[in-house]
Amino acid sequence: MPPKRKSSSIPANAASANNYTDASGSAPNKRSRIAKPLDKAFTKGESPANSTARNTENGAPGEPVEKDEGDFDHSRPEERAGIVDRRYYPAEMSNERCAMYNSNEITRPIESLEKALKDTKQGREKVQSGKEGGHGDAVVHWFKRDLRIRDNTGLSKAAELAKEKGVGLIGVWIMSPQDWEAHLVSPPKCDFELRSVGLLKQELAELDIPLHIETVPERKKVKERLVELVQEWNVKNVFCNLEYEPDELRREAQLIRMMLEKGVSFEPYHDDCVVPPGNLKTGGGRQYAVYSPWYRAWVAHLHAHPHLLNERPMPEKNPASVRQKFRKLFDSKVPDLPDSKSLSTEEKERFQHLWPAGEAAAIDRIERFLTEKVEKYKDTRNFPALNSTGRVSVHHAAGTLSARTSVRMAQDVNSAKKLDGGKEGVKGWIGEVAWRDFYRHVLVNWPYVCMNKPFKYEYTNIDWEYNEAHFTAWKEGRTGYPIVDAAMRCLNHTGYMHNRLRMITASFLAKHLLLDWRLGEQFFISHLIDGDFASNNGGWGFSASTGVDPQPYFRIFNPWTQSERFDEQGEFIRLWVKELEGVDAPAIHNPYLAGGDAAKKAKKNGYPEPVVEHKFARERCLARYKAGIGRETA
């Protein structure tokens, strides 16, 4: 059994906290990414005593972040800190290999997929025509991160072919606990997906379409099990929508060939992005590595190809015979959360209240945002206390709402049909959806970002800290920087964090604490209910200055000025940091520097002093980044 999770650290404000967000959350993961400490020094060439002394020179005691030894390269501190989960992934890629991707010496996963499609094109067309093996008894759509029946490309194509061939449509959804573990999916997100699957099953049943639900414990056996199922049902055509992580692209490339060997056509479609990754290129034919010119190309492409925003037709009702022929498939049940992702009864109720699941909730959420909040979005989006953002990211992440639908609905309420024109709020929000597309474009073209390497892989050489005390203080919201602590406590309780706060907390971990940014990236993805690898990785790369189109490394957020600017009266801080509830602004932003009653109240209520001094942290960060960037690549 997994270890018991700690209860929320802020029970005093549970009622108000539970109403903080009305649709987007996540909670702490059951299993800490940090396990038993090792006896050896965590940095090359340092003794344990020396390494601890270096980490505590600012007065905060603590041990390096370390894990079980396993099959790690102990000369690298990041390996010893458990950055790479060796149960599922190989050791960290070298910088040289990253460079080989950039010089096209290594085949990208998307290229393997495209080659598989090209090599099998004629064979798949023969299967679809029915000239070889007939039409079968049904067409299958494999649901993954597309848990909806509306505006679903793969499902729509499957339904169209089923109708054309006069056979039924079957849906299948496979739960792989190992996939959730390997991808660090948060328990609240797993719960949200299961709730959404249950609602999807009900909607499909109203159309006499069965949704077969099955658990495959070992992630590597998902492909084989899917092949077995379609053979068992005498299916000749299988459809799905693409996921863009390397393992998933390779899996689909293999399935194309595996299925065809069994006389089955496997058809994966682009659906997760408004514009498929790789479609936009510079004048020189290269992929964009900067958002602004990419965004201009994205807008121009959609203006030139408006059909990309068209809604995909919903499936029609299955023939009456399908219920009889496949009656057992209608009886499959939604499984419970696996032990590694379990939630307490209180946590389940909390997340269900905060984050209603399913497609209907997604549509309701975005309609209310576009009706009530989008006009002021540009002016209010950076203020977390206002609850003024869309908060549909949880639905985008689970696929209960497509990015295409979001852009189309926003365009419908705009005063101009141009995506980069009209109301500033609408234009700004569409730009945020475009960022989601952009980070998927990066993931597909620079796949090593999904392999524990930063986009700027030379930044691997920065000498990061691995201080357990600092990491714990950051995770628990006890750093002594109120805006950081409020944000982290909000994340731990709701599974959600406002985007401005994500930047502040990420910058603080990477630049003030100088902790390896990947520790923070993994903590976020394992706690966010809207966890999404591409967007999370892109956001951390931006904040730590290691990613695509980042803020310069010498730009270091001052948490106090960020707090004063975006939570001027301290409303958000008071909601989550109850120790400072009685402290007025502006003292609430830095009570110990303010002194007087503010410092007395903070100390009396047990609020910690800052774990690191701002000036010291800034100078250390600049020196460490400059030194790391100047070293030879590993």
Automatic annotation (TrEMBL):
Cofactor(s) listed in the protein's UniProt record: FAD; (6R)-5,10-methylene-5,6,7,8-tetrahydrofolate
Keyword terms, alphabetized:
Chromophore, FAD, Flavoprotein, Lyase
Pinpoint the site Electron transfer via tryptophanyl radical: 464, 517, 540
Q: Where is this region: Disordered?
A: 1-85
In this chain the Photolyase/cryptochrome alpha/beta domain maps to 137-274
Task: Name a single GO cellular component.
Answer: nucleus
- How, per the record, is the cofactor bound? Binds 1 FAD per subunit.
Residues where FAD binds? 377, 389-393, 429, 432-439, 530-532
- Protein name stated in the entry: Deoxyribodipyrimidine photo-lyase
